[in-house]
Design a protein that fits this description.
One of its GO terms (cellular component) is extracellular space. There is one protein chain. This protein has helices at about 195, 270-275; strands at about 40, 50-55, 65-75, 75-80, 90-95, 105-115, 120, 125, 130-135, 165-170, 185-190, 210-215, 230-235, 240-250, 260-265. It is mainly beta. The chain has 2 domains: about 45-150 and about 270-275, Beta Barrel (Thrombin, subunit H), CATH 2.40.10; about 165-265, Thrombin, subunit H, CATH 2.40.10.10. The radius of gyration is 17 Å and the shape is globular.
């Protein structure tokens, strides 16, 4: 597959938003190297990772982690449409452990939820499985504050080649399963050619070009190590791009059933339209 040069897509922001210095550029602490394979993530290695938390409306219960998300701008989180329900929601940024207090954590209220108009859930697949969360401005007209542990990822404007190594991260939660890790996890996955994902012995014609699959055909690590709604991030020239949103799959780590992700490049116009018009 031929690819062009990848350049960060810098989103225009209104005056009430914090203009982050750049996107897709983590500031790694001077500690041991990154660990992959579904292992624990180190602080500041996924500074765009969000924990999308919910509780029943009108209750005083504690918020609990329900899905992942990705910070793409000071006031905007990208997530999966199937994560959205009628509960009260908030977003946690900047942490790597849901159960530990951390001065680097930021908790933000959600002002508006925007689900893709053509989101469709069928017994076999999820279509147009993408949503945006608009965060509420704080006292200084800012939403998330840019720090070492809170930074925005870039939106892609080109495709990555098949067989690229990319990274998933999250707390191990899915819509169908209750298991949640308190610790942020990460794993390396491969981008699998679309024709292989759509072959009859994998997913066949239930997939369309708004989806991609990533993982390993041998049935190793896949999005069970991430979250529904969480990021699939690919790197080029030391810049990180949100390339997929964890969407669905056939069980976990099953041979010839890799994880399926919303293909972010198909929704760039939709993302820009919703952000600019809000």
């Amino acid at each position: 597959m031929e690819t062009g040069n990848l350049e960060p897509v810098k989103l225009n922001t209104v005056s009430t938003k914090l203009e982050f210095s750049n996107c897709g550029k983590p500031i790694y602490p001077l500690i041991t190297p990154r660990i992959f394979g579904g292992r624990k993530s180190l602080p500041a290695f996924h500074p765009w990772q969000a924990s999308f938390q919910s509780r029943p409306k009108g209750s005083n219960l504690n918020f609990t982690h329900s899905c992942g998300g990705t910070l793409i701008d000071s006031c905007w989180i990208l997530t999966a449409a199937h994560c959205i329900d009628e509960d009260e929601v908030r977003v946690e940024l900047g942490g790597v452990n849901l159960e530990k207090d951390d001065p680097g954590k930021q908790f933000l209220e959600v002002e508006k939820v925007i689900v893709h108009e053509n989101f469709t859930e069928t017994p076999d697949a999820l279509y147009n499985d993408i949503a945006l969360l608009k965060l509420r401005d704080g006292v200084n007209g800012r939403c998330a504050n840019e720090t070492q542990s809170v930074r925005a990822v870039c939106l892609p404007n080109e495709t990555f080649p098949d067989e690229s190594h990319c990274t998933i991260s999250g707390y191990g939660a899915t819509q169908k399963e209750s298991g949640v890790s308190s610790q942020l996890l990460e794993a390396k996955v491969l981008l699998i050619p679309q024709r292989r994902c759509m072959s009859q012995n994998v997913y066949g014609n239930i997939m369309d070009d708004s989806m991609l699959c990533a993982g390993y055909m041998q049935g190793k690590i896949d999005s069970c190590q991430g979250d529904s709604g969480g990021p699939l991030v690919c790197e080029k020239d030391q810049t990180h791009y949100i390339y997929g949103v964890v969407s669905w799959g056939d069980r976990c780590g099953v041979k010839k059933k890799p994880g399926v992700y919303t293909r972010v490049t198909k929704f760039i116009d939709w993302i820009n339209e919703k952000m600019y018009s809000t």
